[in-house]
Amino acid sequence: MPHDLPPKGATYYYFAKWRDDGTDKTIHDLLRWHLREKKGRLADPSLVVLDTQSVHVAAGVAATTTGWDVAKKVPGRKRGLAVDVLGLVIAVIAVIAVIAVVVLAASAHENTAGIALLDQAAVVTEGSVTKALVDQGFKNTVVAHGASLGIAVDIVERDPADKGFVPQPKRWVVEQTYGILMFHRRLIRDYEHRPASSESRVYRAMTDAMSRRLTSATPSWRWT
Asked: Which of 19, 9, 78 lies closest to 50 in space, CA to CA?
């Protein structure tokens, strides 16, 4: 550990306190509003992109908070994100594998994550979101739930003629955000015993990324 950090107990005390009282998310949201306005946009978006990411967990993480993602064949947890067109995080969920603050059963479908993300996005943006883009992993249940919230959910289908990785317009930004998160070594896998701590780590990583964008600092991911 760097020599200039406070004692471990004091550091964790504030991490847990800010996680539990929402200070970490408040700081994150203030920076998100500031960055969006700097880019000439309204503080809250009208369109969000939803996606999930399955990650392995570290040894020692309680088995009761992990599971098996049958589709991707990944044991661990699944993060769910709702991002705007700038790739900024609007909502996060940490889902027991089958980033909003919801923990779901290992057998839960992508729809469950999508519904939780839509609920959080509607609350966080105070109803400004009117459209959401999702991939084919999300089904009509999410579309119907979005309609009940006044959010039109579009399922973006992959062109069968495409070979390999082909970025999909607008929807690719959520993949970019996941890539940025992977530069933060604490998020390469899930080390947290509590899913709430996993969500807090995502907000803190995005706070770091947005601070760099606001100050035009050149990213130095090696030391994050």
From this structure: 78
Give yes or no for a contact between 22 and 124, defined as CB atoms under 8 angstroms apart: no
3-state secondary structure of 34: helix
Q: How far apart are CA 216 and CA 219, in angstroms?
A: 9
Bridge partners of residue 52, in order along the sequence? 80
Token pair of 93, please?
Answer: 């969920």
The segments of the chain whose pLDDT lies below 70 read 1-2, 95-109, 217-224
Amino acid at 117: L
Q: pLDDT digits over 149-192, tens only?
A: 999 999 988 777 777 777 777 888 999 999 999 999 899 998 99
What pTM was estimated for this model as a whole? Answer: 0.87
Round to the nearest angstrom and report the end-to-end CA distance of the chain: 12
Q: How would you label 20-56 residue by residue, b for 16+ Cβ within 10 Å and e otherwise?
A: eeeebbebbbebbeebbeeeebeebbebbbbbbbbbe
- Identify which of 112, 101, 87, 96 has the alpha carbon closest to the alpha carbon of residue 176: 87
Pair 121, 129: CB distance under 8 Å:
yes
